[in-house]
Amino acid sequence: LTDPRLAWVREVIGQQVTQLARLVDDLLDVSRIDQNKGKEEKKTVDIISVIRDAIAALSAEAEKRSITVDLVVPEESVPGIMAPPKRLYEAFENLVSNGIKYNRAGGRLDIVVANTDKGLEVTLRDTGIGIPTDDQSKIFSKFFRASNAVLKETEGSGLGLSVVKSYLEEADGRISFESVEGVGTTFLIRFPFNPLDT
User: Which of 51, 70, 102, 145 has its CA 20 to 30 A from that of 161?
Assistant: First the structure.
């Protein structure tokens, strides 16, 4: 018979190996960004498909935490944007993951894609723990994690949002946010339209 204690040890070791692998991946990403190496070729990307793929990849985690993820897209067609496809996906996967992990049980993550006269906007609004005011100026800094985020999720390298910002900037995107601790956080990403589509 399998010893339950051995099964527990295997599970803990597996979790630690996964955490270490994620940390190594994050460090490699940051190193490539710092050295301006390994840039991915830009292509015309359908941002809605990218976001849907990220939501699908994290649907099990959202269900586990009882988080409702809702995507709203405009009725009119959305022009493509010039972006490195893999990195753009990784950026949105990270943002969606954060909106789930740092939410409250039974909370919501609403994602809205909109055409504007200046370009394409994506808004991610969660009902989570929010970011303390004193931490907000450092949220995109390397290795920084908000104080309440550390308490809610002990895992994490503090590199995610730094990498997100860099990857979005490769697509000429700009990210900003508003947050109220205990209420939630809203991230706003703006992209210029692909000139070929306008």
Answer: 70
Q: Are 111 and 185 in contact (CB under 8 A)?
A: no
d(CA 42, CA 190): 17
Q: Which residue has the tokens 């940390």?
A: 23
What's the full length of the chain, in residues?
A: 198
Task: Pick the closest to residue 100 from 9, 13, 184 (CA basis).
Answer: 184
Tell me the per-residue pLDDT of 130-167, one tens digit each, with 9 for 90 and over: 999 999 999 998 877 888 787 776 565 667 899 999 99
Contacts of 128 by beta carbon, 8 Å cutoff, 6+ apart: 99, 102, 103, 104, 107, 184, 185
pTM equals 0.79
DSSP code, position 38: S
Give the CA angle between residues 193, 194, 198 to the nearest 5°: 75
- Per DSSP, 40 falls in state P
Which H/E stretch holds residue 147?
Answer: helix 147-152
DSSP 8-state symbol, 146? -
